[in-house]
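Record pair follows.
FIRST:
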Amino acid sequence: MDPKTTSTETAAYLSKYPQSEFTNAVKLLRAQDFSTRKKFTESIPMWEELKSISDAKLPRDQILFERARALYETKSWIKSAEAFSDFVKEFPQHPQSFSARLSKAVALQQVGKNSIEAWEEVRQFATIPSSPHQTALEQIGLLASQKENKDKIHSTFKELIGRYPESEIIPLAFFQLATLAVQEGDKAKANEMPNHGILHPRKEWSISPMI
């Protein structure tokens, strides 16, 4: 089928044969076409319909993932996070399961939700060393700092410093570890931390997660 005419041809077929043995396959082709052309808003109801269809011939893994991706691309952050969760629950070992976990974490962070658990999942399944693993450590460290979760601050920033010394939040990592050492009464340990310049404790730090 010519990609340039897929939309009109599938629409015409579904109008003429709404209940044929090929109807579901044509619906899938139509949804794929819209997503390929980045018409994600229009594709969402198509993927939703396909998700609700019980047909063993349909690729359910693709349907769930593409539904989540369309929601993500339209910045429907909460719905996309839930959709990626649905995908991972049903296909935890799928080749795209890591991408789904990463996208879920980013989506939750976009709306200011406590995404630390989602980033922990990314950290757990990421290849080491890798950019996603580094990003997960950075995000967990930042979120733990906001929540003043001392145990997680310590374990996360220690690992970040050891594995990714070039991370742009290394100064914050050392500052937080030094602060913890002071709070624990170990000023000598705090003084051992490298001097990365003056860090104000109220400085706002953030990393834009890339996927």
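SECOND:
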Amino acid sequence: MNKGFKHWFINVYWYHYKWVTLVGIAVIIVLVSLIHSVVTRTEPDITVVLATESPMTQMTAEPFETFIGEIVGDVNQDGSVSVELQALNINTDTQIGSANRMLLTALLSREDVHLYILDLETAEDFESGDFFTPIEGQSLPYTRVDAALKHIGVPLAEDTVIVAGLGNRTGDRRDEAAKVLAALIGKNDGNAD
């Protein structure tokens, strides 16, 4: 006796193949989502690493991100200004800080990171590693910018010394990173508003 498709689907197919079907649907959803994220991902106009001992969240670093976006503009001509800012707390007293310090080591060797903003102690730790490009007119490969960051609105502890350096592997965004660094130096010296 033929009981129809609904009976066959529930009592035969679904009973025997429900887990295979559910896993198959889940795999298809994950694949579609991954493909969508790869296809629609836009390259940022500039990538900056901000690594300090004092906790800094993406939200507290937002004024700095806006400042960079205004200087750099739409470099990749995609119609929007996109600044990728990696804010890392590298306090070695915490487990997260130690992990972020290892992440910073990896970020220092990436070609797509253009500008590094670090506290002085961290910059000194990495100074001998040939991670920074020499800055014209400077004896060190980085320069102080803490007054500039405070002026922009980035909250810093009073005794924090922050320095900025150009990545040694900045590639095609070197000029934009140099513009940001020059603006920070100008603000730090009090020559810009």
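COMMENT: The first strand starts at residue 46 and ends at 52.
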